[in-house]
Amino acid sequence: MEDNKPSFSKFGKDFQESLCQMILQDRPFADTIMEVLDINFLELHYLRVFIKKIFEYREEFGVHPTYRIMISIIRAEIDGENAATQQQLRNYFARIHDAQVSGSDYIKKISLEFCRKQKLKEAMIKSVPLLEKSSFDEIAKIINDAIKLGDHTDHGYDYLKDFERRFELKARNPISLGWSDIDGLCKGGLGKGELGVVIAPTGAGKSMVLVHLGANALKLGKTVVHYTLELADTVVASRYDSCITKIPLGQLHSFKEEIYEQVQDMEGTLIVKEYPTKSASTRSLRTHLEKLKMRDILPEMVIVDYGDLLRPVSAQKEKRNELESIYEELRGLAKEFECCLWTASQTNRSGLNAEVITLESISEAFNKCFVSDFIFSLSRTVEDKQSNTGRIFVAKNRNGPDGIVFPISMHTANVQIEVLPQTGEEQNMLTARDQSEVLKEKYKKFRSNQKKKE
C-alpha cells in the first residue's frame, strides 16, 4: 500500500531538488503550490524537512524566508533530525545557494498539475457519500474549491509577504568594460538586466567597440552571445581573434596555430549568430536565446550589432516609433534572461566629424536614451583616424556621474582600444550640467513636435 501513495518519485531526484529550490527563491510560486502540496509527495526525507521549515517560517512570521534566513534555520533548527539527514540537508543547501534552476517553467507546470490532480481526486472521493444523499450543492462546492486550489496567484510583489526581499543585497554582477576609468564611473561595468548603448557615426568603429566589450567579458570567463546583422559571423569571430591575440586582422591566416593555442583554454564561451539585415526581430533573438537555454547555455552578456538594424515586431507609422519599441524590447530581453545587453546606434549627420558626440546627435528615436542604462559615444575625426586616436564621451549613466570625456587610443588593425588618462582639455569639453541642458532642450523639442502632429 505504501508504494501506491502519490509521490514525485517518478520524476527523479533532480526534479524534486529543483522544485524545492524554486519554492525557496520564488515567493509567488510558493504561494501557489503551498495550496496543493503535501510534503509527503517528496520522496526524500531531507527535502521534506527543508520544505517544512519554509512553511513553518511563513506561518509564524507571515513573510517568505530568504537564503540568509534559511542558513540560520539550517544551522539552528534541525538538531532533532538524525546526523545523516542533517548532513544531506547542509550539502543540498550548499549546492543550490548560487545555482540556477534549469527548466524552471517545466518543473512549475508538472509539479502544479500533479498536486492539483491529487487534490481533485481527494475531493471526488469525499463527494461519493454526498452523492448518495443527493447533496449536489455541497458536491459542487467541494469540487469547485478543489479546482481553484493551486491556480495562478502571482499578483506581483507583496509588500508584507516579500518584506525580507527589500533587505537582501541586490547583486548587479557587473561585467567590466575593460577600461578601469569608465568601470569606476558605472560601479564595475554593466550589470545584469541593464542596457548599454554605443553611439557613433558610420565608419567610426561601433562594431569594433562591441567586439572589445565581448572579448573582455570572454577573458573574464563569461558566456557571450553576439548577434551580427551587418557582418558575417566568421568576420566577427576573426575580430575576436585579433582583439584577444593582438594579431592584426590582415595577418590572422598566417598565425592560425598560435591563435588556436591562445583561445582554446579560455574559460568563457562565445556564440556568434548571424542574421541578414532587417530579417530578425527581438522575437527572433528571444527564440534563439531560449534554444540556447535548453542546451544549458546561459548568456551573461548579449551583444546586438546593432539595434537599429533589427526588424520591428509590429510595424509603426514612423521609424522613430519602431526604433523606440526595439530598444524597449532589448532592455526587456536583458531583464528576462538576467544578463547585460550591449548594442550600438547610429548618429545623424552632425556627428560625422564632431570632436565630442552628445545625445543630441543620436539618430531618429531620441527615446532610445530614456530606456538605456549606460550610453557612451565614440567620436573620431579624420585626423583621429590617421593618428589612431579618438574620444569616448559618457553621455548617460544610471549608476554614477556622466558628461565626462576620455581620450582613447584605437587601432582598428588589431581591434585594440585603450582609454587614456584625461587631460585638462578633455575635462573641460563638456560638463554634466551642459549635457543635462542639452537633454532638457532636446526633450522639449521632441514633445513639442509630438503635440503638433497630434
Fold and architecture overview:
The protein is of the alpha/beta class and 454 residues long. The protein has 2 domains: 2-166; 180-453, P-loop containing nucleotide triphosphate hydrolases (Rossmann fold). Helices cover 47% and strands 13% of the residues. It has 17 helices and 9 strands. Strands 3-2-4-5-1-6-7-8-9 form a 9-stranded mixed beta sheet, with helices on both faces. Helix 1 runs parallel beside helix 3 and helix 1 packs across helix 6 (104-132). The longest helix has 29 residues, at 104-132. The termini are far apart.
The CATH architecture of the largest domain can be given as 3-Layer(aba) Sandwich
- What number is the mean pLDDT? 84
Strand order of the largest sheet: 3-2-4-5-1-6-7-8-9
> Can you tell me the CATH topology of the largest domain?
Rossmann fold
The shape is elongated
Helicity range:
40-55%
Topology as a string of helices (H) and strands (E): HHHHHHHHEHEHHEHEHEHEHEEEHH
CATH H-tier superfamily of the largest domain: P-loop containing nucleotide triphosphate hydrolases
Supply Rg.
28 Å
Low-confidence stretches: none
In short:
This protein has 454 residues and is α/β, with parallel strands linked by helices. It has helices spanning 13-25, 27-34, 45-61, 67-76, 83-96, 104-132, 136-148, 180-185, 206-219, 233-245, 256-263, 282-294, 319-336, 368-371, 382-387, 424-427, 432-453; strands at 195-200, 223-228, 269-274, 301-305, 340-346, 374-379, 389-397, 404-411, 416-419.
